[in-house]
Write a structure and sequence with these properties.
Layout lengths: L1 H10 L3 H29 L1
């Protein structure tokens, strides 16, 4: 969660903008991670 505050301060975003950005970022990372695991599951 410290990354949230670092992004907020570094980019100078408001709380609402940071929350929206963070939500999109974590969603993309989650879907990418799931895709990688499913792909690896095909080979292992």
């Amino acid at each position: 969660m410290a990354g949230f505050w670092m992004v907020k301060e570094y980019l100078g975003l408001s709380m609402k903008e940071t929350f929206q950005t963070w939500t999109v970022l974590t969603t993309v990372l989650s879907i990418t991670g799931l895709g990688c695991v499913l792909l690896l599951g095909l080979f292992i």
